[in-house]
Amino acid sequence: MRSHTRVLVGTTTTVLTFGLAACGGAGTTTNQPADGASVAAAVDVAQCATEGTVIDVAFNAVATESMAAAVKAMEAKYPGLTFDAEPAASTSYDDLTQQIVADIAVGNRPDVIMTGLGQMQFWVDTYNPVPFDSSVLADTYQKQFLGAGTARDGVTYVAPAQISAPVMVVNLDLLDESDAGTAEDIKTYDDLLRVAEKVTAHTGSPSVSIAPTGLPEWFAQGLIQASGGTFVDSDGAAAFGDATGIDALRISSDLGSNGWEAGIPDATQAMDIFTSGTLPISMVTTSNIAAISQGIGDKFDWMPIKLPTVEGDQSRALPAGGNGTWSSRRIRAAQRSATNSSARSSHRRVCCRRQAPSAATSPWTPLLATNCWHPIRRHRR
To answer: Which of 380, 350, 354 is nearest to 365 (CA)?
Structure first.
């Protein structure tokens, strides 16, 4: 392979411990989620059993392979425990969120829910997830990424399974043919505009894509933060209307007014066109790097670069994208006493003990860890 791939902020594979809500002692509850489910206090894990228990996991196609590996490992470790874990077809975190919210509204609340990091605060504000117990993480987990799974209340709810950042990818062959310099020299907006002008003059086609759909707000946030601005303030209000933010966003209009913006409507489509060799420069996410590399093969030389900035400082932190999972507090019957619970044979305590990962485990393993869970009766559609 001839590509010059330099992963700047690569996908972080981690062990995610899904501490499902506690199976409880009699009569003890905590605060209430938005759908009215009450939460029981934890009991000794030795009282829990896995036989005959099914865990619902809601996730999308982004995690298909890793989730399958995690499920296989968990079912092997805990005989009798099974998972309902079929991915949603879409790779969109927004689509996944909307589907799960619709399911919850009709009484089908999953036990473990995948979320894009950008959607995490919504789940925290609305559905009261279980705080994440970081003590279950492997020593090899890079704990600096836990900040991306920490909400405004200062509590960590998600240990990111994948982390990505916005970058640009550059077709080095087209730059060479256009005598446009090197990709490493693209540090400022003026550098990008100079390269775009030269490459467009050579190819006769617009040369840069910053797609307006797919990941638009994240791309905008990346450009703003990279240039020293603030996208959203601590209260959740827009904060990019100042001079720094306006300067950071002008690159799209500058490219467009000169005829150098390719006008590709969707980020995925732009990535596919870049992979074909006809688009010189595209803004993408680092999570696309492997797919781009596979798609290009030996067709041409290319590399990812850091985002150019207004003044050329490329050292600032970029917004973290990616995903993780949170545990659903879905316990309505957990407070029953041992006497009363015997009358409801469909309710069984399930426990998956804390498990440190081995090098061979999936980034989604173990699926369950911190407490016991007392599932309610299923109401499937």
So the answer is: 354
